[in-house]
TrEMBL record:
<keyword id="KW-0813">Transport</keyword>
<dbReference type="Pfam" id="PF08352">
    <property type="entry name" value="oligo_HPY"/>
</dbReference>
<feature type="domain" description="ABC transporter">
    <location>
        <begin position="8"/>
        <end position="253"/>
    </location>
</feature>
<keyword id="KW-0067">ATP-binding</keyword>
<dbReference type="InterPro" id="IPR003439">
    <property type="entry name" value="ABC_transporter-like_ATP-bd"/>
</dbReference>
<dbReference type="InterPro" id="IPR027417">
    <property type="entry name" value="P-loop_NTPase"/>
</dbReference>
<dbReference type="Pfam" id="PF00005">
    <property type="entry name" value="ABC_tran"/>
</dbReference>
<protein>
    <submittedName>
        <fullName>Peptide/nickel transport system ATP-binding protein</fullName>
    </submittedName>
</protein>
<dbReference type="InterPro" id="IPR050319">
    <property type="entry name" value="ABC_transp_ATP-bind"/>
</dbReference>
<dbReference type="InterPro" id="IPR017871">
    <property type="entry name" value="ABC_transporter-like_CS"/>
</dbReference>
<dbReference type="InterPro" id="IPR013563">
    <property type="entry name" value="Oligopep_ABC_C"/>
</dbReference>
<keyword id="KW-0547">Nucleotide-binding</keyword>
<dbReference type="InterPro" id="IPR003593">
    <property type="entry name" value="AAA+_ATPase"/>
</dbReference>
<comment type="similarity">
    <text>Belongs to the ABC transporter superfamily.</text>
</comment>
<dbReference type="GO" id="GO:0005524">
    <property type="term" value="F:ATP binding"/>
</dbReference>
Length: 338
């Protein structure tokens, strides 16, 4: 895919925070580049604390990067000011993990959605009422909920309201940060199916941040794997799950339990040692080397090369080529959400 076809491009993004340790900084996002085509749903996976949410928050403007570029339709958002920046920022909306924390409990659902409509200049009361009805209908909620407060709704209903609020400003990109992980299993699949339906019907591009690898495999066309602030592998989702070529990706996939108890009883997941290193003092060279069963001396000497293994499949590991060549040709059998 050519760059000109990309709707959203993130180039060499770096986002740092001051650490609680005096004089130290945490580089949560370190030289990250990703892209989304119009209407594409892309996954971003990794362990908690690897920088996924910070990347999403940086893209939408909730965090300020220290360097790099975020481009929408080729326009660098850092070059915009005032009204032009606000209008462009509206095209990128964020769906939070916790819908209750992201909604104002002193506003009814109707007031919450109307507030978003006012922001985009819709001031006619009747037009607002019709649009609120349409938004609720799009996310599968009855009109009567417009008069209720977030505390009166279930978790699944609140997340549907949060999605409706994001759609109110007619975005072109949704950053979905673990949008179903806080929900009960019984309703997680319902909300996920809603995302897939809206994505198909409205053509909104989505960056889907998650730790549920089976969910990402089911929902996305491409996937990025992130570890300690770095993208370590990216490919089409089918290719990534069929031929994981970074030891970290292999470990993540190997940790997924099998739905078959007989298989699970004999499963030996790839070894992964210890905890994630401190982001204030990451390992030299490859950041995964301190936990990698395949680590060698060369892994500490410098950043690993980003190898092109196949069209649109890259991995940052000195042995990625060997892992790719010897990977199993059949896709991993992942348990799908009920």
């Amino acid at each position: 895919m050519h760059e000109a076809e990309d709707l959203l491009r993130v180039e060499n993004l770096v986002t740092r925070f001051k650490s609680v340790e005096r004089g130290k900084w945490v580089t949560a996002v370190d030289d990250v580049s990703i892209r989304l085509a119009p209407g594409e749903m892309v996954g971003l996976v990794g362990e908690s604390g690897c920088g996924k949410s910070t990347l999403g928050r940086s893209i939408v403007g909730l965090e300020r990067p220290q360097s790099g570029r975020i481009l929408l339709d080729g326009v660098d958002l850092s070059s915009l000011r005032g009204r032009a920046l606000r209008e462009t920022r509206r095209a990128i909306q964020y769906v939070f993990q916790d819908p209750y924390a992201s909604l104002n409990d002193r506003q009814t659902i109707g007031e919450t959605l109307t507030e978003a409509l006012i922001i985009i200049g819709m001031t006619d009361r009747e037009a607002q009422r019709r649009r609120v009805h349409t938004l609720l209908d799009q996310v599968g909620l009855p009109d009567a909920l417009a008069e209720r407060y977030p505390r009166e709704l279930s978790g699944g209903q609140r997340q549907r309201v949060a999605i409706a609020r994001s759609l109110a400003v007619e975005p072109r990109v949704l950053i979905c940060d673990e949008p179903v992980s806080a929900l009960d299993l019984s309703i997680r699949a319902q909300v996920m199916n809603l995302f897939l339906t809206l994505h198909k019907d409205l053509g909104v591009a989505c960056l889907f941040i998650a730790h549920d690898l089976a969910l990402v495999r089911q929902a996305t066309s491409r996937t990025y794997v992130m570890y300690l602030g770095k993208i370590v592998e990216d490919a089409s989702s089918a290719e990534l799950y069929a031929r994981p070529s970074h030891p970290y990706t292999q470990a993540l996939l190997g940790s997924i339990p099998s739905a078959d108890p007989r298989v699970e009883a004999h499963r030996e997941p790839p070894p992964i040692f210890g905890d994630i290193p401190s982001p204030t003092n990451p390992p030299s060279g490859c950041r995964f080397r301190t936990r990698c069963p395949r680590a060698m001396e060369v892994c500490a000497s410098g950043p690993p090369p980003r190898l092109a293994l196949a069209p649109r499949h890259h991995a940052s590991c000195v042995i990625a080529g060997d892992l790719y060549a010897h990977s199993h040709p059949e896709p991993h059998r992942l348990p799908m959400p009920a």
